[in-house]
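[audit] Reproducing an earlier prediction to check determinism. Same input, same settings, fresh worker. If the tokens differ from the archived copy the diff job will pick it up downstream; this log only records the rerun itself.
[audit] input (408 residues):
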Amino acid sequence: MIYCGIDWAERHHDVALVNDAGRLVAKLRIDDTAAGYRTLLDVLAEHGDTGDSPIPVAIETSRGLLVATLRTGKRQVFAINPMAVARYRDRHGVSRKKSDPGDALVLANILRTDMVVHRPLPQDSDLAQAIAVLARAQQDAIWNRQQLSNQLRSLLREYYPAALEAFGVWQNGLCRPEARAVLAAAPTPSRAAGLSRAHLRSALRRAGRIRGIEAEADRMREIFRAAYAHQPPLVEDAFGKQMLALLLQLEAACTAADDLAKAVEEAFPQHPDADVILSFPGLGVQLGARVLAEIGDDRTRFADARGLKAYAGSAPITRASGKKHHVGRRRVKNDRLNHAGYLWAFAALTASPGAKAHYRHRRERGDWHSQAQRHLFNRMIGQLYHCLQRGELFDEQTGFPSLLAEAA
């Protein structure tokens, strides 16, 4: 049996192959190019790599063109956490030395000694991988949009409080197209005070607003013409230029988030698991796509529901030593899935009577809000695992039988 370890970098990758006895049988350095990938595959073939019996590979990343090339066929690719690699490195020497060829050898020996305790990358379908790319990009775009919105709000507080008052009554506030259109037309409070009703109506129409234009124009005109403290004129103009530059970034972030959301809405319903995921209360297209992106569609990825719960961070973890026994929340987890699970549990409170009863039951037992939410997510993701394995839709009576009876 031959095991392969790859220490990857931006421009080159170090490769080491070891046999069952731990003897180094081959080592090389390849470029991060198509020619380098072909060289790697040729070396693997020389040492017994075939389509039916491929050589397993350990690497410290789960993405990239190199990983995509290695995952063709039946080959098992193991993404080893760099922190775990650092612990294994200490087994081979106490001098704490480190080198790229040495790390490749450590990775190969990890598979030789402990391959059964590491999980290979899941064999997800191409559609599931495409949905994962879109869902994660859309989530990143939303986070980026919120960060830029917070920066813009902080800047407006320094010189333009009237804008915050005018847009504070709207949901999503500064991220709305109406707010961005008005700020582009009046970047400073002095210019905002000079806007007429016609200018405000025109800005609202350009942003796509259809109803309530007259009332909104009158309301904002009164706010902009009220008495506020002002910065000196030159300083105010400088703030206005800074705000316009930040507004351009926010405009791009909002456009990216909307475009990626449309792409997710087109791709997610095409997946066979979409009907099962959307049958759960609290899961819509966007949130359901995020859940699918993180758990994938490889049915053999998790041995049971407990493995999925641990991966999501909803299952508690026990630390016991002697007389000490502590049960707490899990910190090592998939952060994206855990974040989606919190939103899922929160939305399920209004969409499912059983979920609401479960949440109330946990609160009555003394759980804090986040603890009760995590407990609800832990229960529902276990039910999701069961439904996906059997191809069944969620049923409220089956999911929360006793709690629904008590609530009735």
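[audit] rerun output stored. Observation attached for the diff report: Residues 275-407 form one domain.
[audit] end
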